[in-house]
Model the fold of this input.
Amino acid sequence: MTTSLLTDRYELTMLRAALADGTAYRHSTFEVFTRNLPPGRRYGVVAGTGRLLEALADFRFDDDDLAWLSQAGVVDRTTLDFLAKFRFRGTIHGYPEGETYVAASPVLTVTGTFAECVLLETLVLSILNHDSAVAAAASRMTSAAVDRPCIEMGSRRTHEEAAVAAARAAVIAGFGSTSNLEAGRRYDLETTGTSAHAFTLLHDDEQAAFAGQIAALGPQTTLLVDTYDVAAGVRRAIDVAGTSLGAVRIDSGDLGSLAVEVRRQLDSLGARDTKIVVTSDLDEHAIAALAVAPVDAYGVGTRLVTGSGHPTCGMVYKLVAREASNGMIEPVEKTSPSKASRGGRKTANRVTGIDGRSQSEVLLTGHEDAVAAWRSESGQARALQVPLVLDGAIDSRWTGPYGVRTAASRHERSRAELPRGARRLSDGDPVIPTVNIDLG
Amino acid sequence: MTTSLLTDRYELTMLRAALADGTAYRHSTFEVFTRNLPPGRRYGVVAGTGRLLEALADFRFDDDDLAWLSQAGVVDRTTLDFLAKFRFRGTIHGYPEGETYVAASPVLTVTGTFAECVLLETLVLSILNHDSAVAAAASRMTSAAVDRPCIEMGSRRTHEEAAVAAARAAVIAGFGSTSNLEAGRRYDLETTGTSAHAFTLLHDDEQAAFAGQIAALGPQTTLLVDTYDVAAGVRRAIDVAGTSLGAVRIDSGDLGSLAVEVRRQLDSLGARDTKIVVTSDLDEHAIAALAVAPVDAYGVGTRLVTGSGHPTCGMVYKLVAREASNGMIEPVEKTSPSKASRGGRKTANRVTGIDGRSQSEVLLTGHEDAVAAWRSESGQARALQVPLVLDGAIDSRWTGPYGVRTAASRHERSRAELPRGARRLSDGDPVIPTVNIDLG
Done:
């Protein structure tokens, strides 16, 4: 399996034109950033970096790919020859996966020849836009849940492969586990599951269903109690499982008041350690509203995998500097009024106050000596980019299960460092301002 | 590659419990439907059926799958033995891909043993929920565009594999082409592309970029004219390409007024056949607003792949009938107040008036003889379900490129048959009512 055709046709036709007019090998710098956070959001979360590096390892054009490109008339002979030998040999720096970001943060910087950088545009953006959108939503949900575990259960509400990526992104942003088995296998995530209404309906009655589940899975399982009548379901659950029942799940109705009633009933039946899991269209606001309810865990589906209203995060991949015909590296930028960009490679720093909290995102442009000098004078500035790929060599520590664990700790630390307002769920401005400084 | 782990853990634990208590082989009927259309939407579009059948062909548990399930402690020995031999041998009927639907329409009906049906839940819902959401948005866009072609360009705004599925769904709902190469290859779709700002910025100036593109791709290409100044860009484009230039693309600004100015400029330069392609956050409303502008094609990205505000369509997979312990097939339904369902297998019919337009969606329950009698008496009722899988044998005519073409024609015909109100973009009720009739 190659990943090279998960891309837009125009990348290959631009490559074809650039190979023909001699600009394909100009040294180029592309940056990935968002013009703005989604309306009202206070911070973003970088996710997908590990998946991007995994996909990059398979970014090559095999015989089947080349045959199709040729037959479809996408490229000419010269371009086919180039693609047959193609491997990305450039360099990629980026925010570590799990790091928070704000508007204009250069979350990824890709350098190399124009030819090798332009080919990655769609793949980079597909992965980062999707995964970061889910992670940003997940981070708000785990913020709202405070210490209660969140379980990712959204697979059925999104594309089957996006589901795997969404589970991974959710765990990076603090979810404890996922229902998705492939995500569990691929990234060594904890998988969890309860039971469905179908299992209860399959049996002649609820009693038989509960008995079957307890017999097979033991009393530590979670019984779904709302197929018919919740109070009767809870009574039956404890009748069948005893007071050591692991948990009950409520998937409908007014979850807050039901949780109170079910907790009271469980306690009165002596099942004080039986937990209550709630599911049913939860989002960060619903979770926050349940803070006072006796709920032990939240199962979140639809709103998580659809980014809680923002299913993509608007990242773009822009050429910010390139070698001109005279061999000089020059900043470049669009000047059309409605989508103007800022040229030149940015060096990103998170400036922290004496309270240890982030104060601003400082993006420096200018000569590297000046940037280094600024940094050495700014004791409280943390450099945000790290090397991910050096001259084509992928740093595998960011990939696989290890990459996910690293990203999850990074997110926890980065979020903890943000000003307290970051955890507010109401619409507002980004929690720290973006400051552009041109050092000349 | 198997698809069997693209699923939720609880399906396997329910299977385990059902195998243990003897209910796993009860004959069962599951239906896929939406409780409601997304708020304001007038109809839905079934999409993903072909992809589902393709995924079903790979739905088996290989040695790697089984080893992981065993090691992760998801299932016991008995279940592993069952899974090792598992192939779906049940029967699936459904609305043909591309067909329109409304609330409660049984878009898919899966029958077989509980064991084989329950395992498909997540895969079925992932595919249908995603693809149908994109197709519903696409259908509104192509409605609004009337005879002007729509080009799918959203790959960068969604998961890289979801992008392929989105391109496919868009074409089913009337898009003419896609920028996504893998979608072009996999489903034999027409791929198109223009050029990016990066290509212009790569060159020393716009003139050099245009010259390079024209030299490589010929004058029939599309030049992107808004990197610096649109009027200057258009003048340069015709200078370089001549009046036989294929098209110019505008990707920013007030597209309506810019299109008028650019059309006037192109005409005055003698480039009367040069087309104007517009892109930049288009959705069905923006497309409708551009109806009076001299635009020749719409490139649509973000809003298409995110379902234009409804990135998933809320389809559920519910057990509606099953064999009881006495061997009788019985309808089953949840009775909890907030998510009650309606038991029994539904037979779906689209009733048409004398004007040839759809009038209602009639869902029949009851004995098959009574259903057949109702149908033979209702001359104007079209049966909506067709066989897709019979005793495990997949009808491959619904898959691959042929399936996509069939689905696209089905969508065109089905939409044309809906009442005229179906094409209204404003929020409103479903365009035809759902009528439930129990024939006893």
